[in-house]
Amino acid sequence: MEEAVARLDNRKLGVWAFIGSESLFFAALIGMYMVYRGRTGPPAHEALDINFTAALAFILLMSSLTMVLALKAIREGNQGGLRFWLGATIFLGLCFLGGQVYEFYELVHHEHVTITNSLFGASFFTLTGFHGTHVGVGVIWLGAVLFRAYKGGFTPQNYIAVEIAGLYWHFVDLVWVVIFTLIYLI
After folding, report:
1. Which helix (H) or strand (E) segment is 119 a member of?
2. Which letter, b or e, does each residue of 83-109 get, where b requires 16 or more Cβ atoms within 10 Å of its Cβ?
3. Does the chain have fewer CB atoms within 10 Å around its N or its C terminus?
4. pTM above 0.85, yes or no
5. 82-96: per-residue pLDDT in tens?
C-alpha cells in the first residue's frame, strides 16, 4: 500500500482533487438545470436540435479516443504520433466549441431563448456555457502540451504532463455525456 501511495505523482493527485471539486460544481449546475427545466419557455426537445447535438457529442467522444492515442504514442516513443493525435484532439475540441456557438446562436435568434427571458434559457446556457468554457480551457491546455511536444519535451519516461492533460480532457468529455443525456435524451 505504501508503495502505491509513494508512486502517485503529486501533480496527478492535484488534478484528481481538482476533478473532484469540478464534479461537485457540475453536479450543482446539473441539479439547477433539472429543477428549472420546463418551467418556462419551450420544452427542451422542441427548442434543441438533437441530431446536431448528437453529432457534437460524437465529435467530443472521438476526441477522447484521439487523446488516448496521443498518450499511447508517447508511451511508445512516437513523437510524430503524439503531435498528430494531440492536434487531432485540439481540432475536435474546436469543432465541438464551434458547434456549441452555432447552437447558442440558433437558440437566441430563431427560438428566442435567452438567458434573461426564461428559466430554461438561464439554466441551459449556464450549464452548457460552463461546460464549453471547460472545453476551451482544455483546448488551450492541450495546445500548450502540443507546443511542448514540438520542442521535444516528452519521452516514454517523462510524459506526466500529457497524462494529466488527458485526465482533464476525459473528465470534460464525461461531463458532456451526462449533460447530453439529461438535456437531450431524457
Report:
1. helix 119-150
2. bbbbbbbbebbbbbbebbeebbeebee
3. N
4. yes
5. 999 999 999 999 999
